[in-house]
Amino acid sequence: MFDQELIAEAQKTLAAARAAGALITTAESCTGGLVAGVLTAVAGSSDAVFGGFVTYANSAKVALGVPEAVLSAHGAVSEAVARALAEAARARAADADPSQPIVSVAVTGVAGPGGGSAEKPVGLVHFAAASAAGVLHREARLGDLGRENVRRESILIAFSLLQAALNR
Question: What mean pLDDT, rounded, does the chain reach?
């Protein structure tokens, strides 16, 4: 289902989580759960993956813990919302399973083909990874690569950011 590059990056991410003694959780909007999907496509990943939250609608973001004021002020596709999603997912997972450190990754963007604007074009994606060491953010302007390719590239960037957070 997933190509070898995605699986290889998932394996590296899982190895980093195991080495850190941490569990991974995700909060995904434009990727719709694909980051968690690739991680769990790897056999044995249950020892390093807590689970994930698909927060496609703004109301789902609020239900997870993103303040409505942050959404109103910055919009769903923003650094502020990515950071809030990562922190909320980490907090929820830690409440549910306090036995291990939790590292989260959040993805929110415009995958296309529509939905973009001059300020927030198709291919703009914000990422955040939260750990006990703090929150890392990355913005990617992938361009209008087509929906599948924006989502695929976003998965790879999410893994890269997770690895950086796990190796801190």
Answer: 97
